[in-house]
């Protein structure tokens, strides 16, 4: 099992849950794993930040890579459980304009099924 993230699928919705902060120490490994996970087309993907309390500039790079890769394969990302510190970083960098951020898994599931 991966100590940085878990990949699941439920009702044809892919789910990626990060298990730790995303920083310089783990961003390379996470990006490598995400390339394999995101190599399918036309899917809804819920990205769960429940266990992420901090991201550094490398973590921001992981998020941007996620968004770019999802667009390449026509996937739709839904970010959930993003804390206020990370939301602030996303606001300042304007990356939040490229994302769908919802509060809970239930909201994300309803949103994904409506697409």
TrEMBL record:
<feature type="domain" description="STAS">
    <location>
        <begin position="3"/>
        <end position="112"/>
    </location>
</feature>
<protein>
    <recommendedName>
        <fullName>Anti-sigma factor antagonist</fullName>
    </recommendedName>
</protein>
<dbReference type="InterPro" id="IPR002645">
    <property type="entry name" value="STAS_dom"/>
</dbReference>
<dbReference type="Pfam" id="PF01740">
    <property type="entry name" value="STAS"/>
</dbReference>
<dbReference type="InterPro" id="IPR003658">
    <property type="entry name" value="Anti-sigma_ant"/>
</dbReference>
<dbReference type="InterPro" id="IPR036513">
    <property type="entry name" value="STAS_dom_sf"/>
</dbReference>
<comment type="similarity">
    <text>Belongs to the anti-sigma-factor antagonist family.</text>
</comment>
């Amino acid at each position: 099992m991966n100590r940085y993230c878990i990949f699941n699928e439920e009702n044809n919705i892919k789910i990626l849950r990060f298990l730790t902060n995303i920083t310089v120490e783990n961003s390379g490994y996470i990006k490598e794993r995400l390339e394999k996970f995101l190599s399918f087309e036309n899917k809804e993907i819920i990205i769960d930040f429940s266990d992420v309390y901090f991201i550094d500039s490398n973590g921001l790079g992981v998020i941007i890579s996620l968004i770019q890769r999802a667009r390449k394969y026509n996937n739709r990302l839904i970010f959930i459980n993003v804390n206020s510190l990370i939301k602030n970083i996303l606001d300042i960098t304007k990356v939040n304009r490229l994302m769908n951020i919802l509060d809970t898994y239930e909201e994300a599931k309803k949103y994904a099924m409506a697409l």
